[in-house]
Amino acid sequence: MNNQRRPTDILSEDHKEVLAKLSKMGETLASIDKKPDLESLKEYGKFFKRDIWAHFDKEEKALFPEMEKFIPRDQGPIGVMLLEHKDLREANDKFQSALAALLQDVNNAGAKQIIRHEGYTIIDVLQQHIHKEDNILFMMANMHINDAQNKRILEVFAGIDREYGK
Ligand SMILES: [Fe+2]
């Protein structure tokens, strides 16, 4: 494992990419009433439809199960992370259907309002979520997870990448 990246390094790299996207998304949401930037909105929609779930799957199906061998799911940060994933999935579902409606009718004011509301929720929840993972959860993982576990996690990651065609 010495010259290989740890699973948490791979996940933290994803986080940087997500944070960069989120920092630009606020501008797109702010201008949605006057001049909706449909191309950018479509791009965010695509990103939230696929890349984020590949990342969540890596945490939920690979990293967290190994961490649960030393931290009980319901009594600590893993349970909190899973609840936040659930909130983000729900916000994304609403965001995606409102985006589909806006693409049908660019003047749909209700759709704009939902996109703005859910979009800001996603930004807010996801920024804080990533911060907690990078600074608390992954530090715990790096302290406790051994090489054999890291190897298993990386194997599951590879399967998830294949599943998502990455
Ligand atoms: Fe994450």
Reconstruct the topology from this structure.
Blueprint lengths: L6 H24 L7 H12 L1 H17 L9 H28 L4 H36 L2 H17 L3
Helix pairs in contact: 1-3, 1-5, 2-4, 3-6, 4-5
Bound molecules: fe (ii) ion.
Helical coverage, percent range = over 70%
The CATH superfamily is: nmb1532 protein domain like
In terms of per-residue confidence, which ranges show pLDDT below 50 for 5 or more consecutive residues? none
Average of per-residue pLDDT values: 94
**In one word, what is the shape?**
elongated
The main pleated sheet reads as: none
- CATH arch. level architecture: Up-down Bundle
Head-to-tail CA distance between termini:
23 Å
Count of folded domains: 1
Number of strands: 0
Question: What structural class is derived from the secondary structure elements?
Answer: mainly alpha
Please report the number of helical segments: 6
Strand fraction: under 5%
Report the bound ligands by name, code or SMILES.
fe (ii) ion
Instruction: Enter the CATH topology name.
Output: Four Helix Bundle (Hemerythrin (Met), subunit A)
Radius of gyration based on Cα positions: 17 Å
